[in-house]
Each structure stands twice: as structure tokens, then as C-alpha cells.
Amino acid sequence: MWAIVVAAGSGERFGGPKQYESLGDGTVLDRSVAVARAVADKVIVVVPPGRARGSGDVEGGPTRSESVRRGLAALPDQAEIVVVHDGARPFASPELYRAVIDAVRAGADAAVPGVAVSDTIKVVDTAMTVVDTPDRATLVAVQTPQAFAADRLRAAHTGQPEGTDDASLVEAIGGRVVVVPGEPDNRKITVADDLQWARQRVAEER
Predict the structure, then answer these.
(1) Span 125-148, pLDDT tens digits
(2) C-alpha closest to that of 90 among 19, 25, 192, 40
(3) pTM for this one?
(4) Is CATH 3.40.50.620 the classification given to domain 2-205?
(5) What sign does the dihedral 201-191-169-62 (CA atoms) show?
(6) What residue spans define the domains of the chain?
(7) Residue 72: how many other CB atoms lie within 10 Å
(8) How far is CA 51 from the centre of its chain?
């Protein structure tokens, strides 16, 4: 089983490459990669141009989807299951990895972690007029790691489509995507407050 840790973003909303911010004894990315290595047989880390440090690193592209494709290109043809994880989510647990992997081994094309949505969600048009209010009970907020049958993920990326996550691309080709329970602490570092929270969480672990 292979893992691709996607960490090629510039961190525009954060104000810099957040994946290289200090966290505990290393960086945000170090922690994300360490968990992936504890579960996967091999790990590919997709990094910004000029940041590759070893044979397991590949340089990313201008979009997240292109970065994932470059990670996929580094996988051997015989890879059967691949997990894609955001490098800016340093608190995903090994158990969460195993849950999505087990769901794919059980027959799903893809498996994603999801947590319940607590806010009411409105669908709006370009004029910011509300056009729909979906039933909150049918919604989940999706996290990574996301696990895939490798051949289905490769097929989903054929033609270089773009998506906010890889599961949406598998959905687009008719793949079966299932949801497993996500983890509240599997929070993505997006803004400075997220990093402050993460550092506090690490301090509490000691």
C-alpha cells in the first residue's frame, strides 16, 4: 500500500508555506509524513519546486490535482491501493488511515473520512441569492487521508481534470465512494489560528 502526501502548496491564505512551519520537534509536514510512513509500505511526498530532499520526494504542479498526478506517476504500476493525504493535516491517526484502507479492501473504489456538519448550509448563486438549503443530515465535511483503488484513481485523473479533492474525480467517473467516521482533531492548518491550536495540542501531549 502506497501513500502520497501532498504538500506542494504555497500557503497563500496562510501567508507562506504552512507545511514547513515548526510543530513540536519538527514541522507540520514532518508529522504528517511520519504517520503515513507508520502505515504505508512506501510514501511519496509531493513538495514545492526546489524543496525535494530525497528519492521519495517529487516536485508538485501549479494545482493540487496536478500535484497528485505527479505523485501517482511516481508509483509502480503494480500498486493496488493508494492513500492521498494533505500534508497540512498533521493529526490524522494511523487508525483513520486503516479505516479508509479497509473500506477500499472491502470493495469501495474510494473511501473518505467525514465529520458531521453542525452549521446550516446554504447554496447561493453568483448574486449571493440563496437557491437551496440542503438537509444537514445528508452532509458531511470531508477530510483526508482518502484511500483509492489505484487503477480507479489513475482513471479518474485521465484527461487532467481538476477537483478540490480526489474523491470528487472518482465520483465523476461513476466510482463508488464511501464515508468512514472522521476525526475532530484531524484539522487542516489553513490560517494562523490553526497553527496556534496545533502547537497547543502538541504541548498538551507532552
Answers:
(1) 999 999 999 999 999 999 999 999
(2) 19
(3) 0.94
(4) no
(5) negative
(6) 2-205
(7) 23
(8) 20
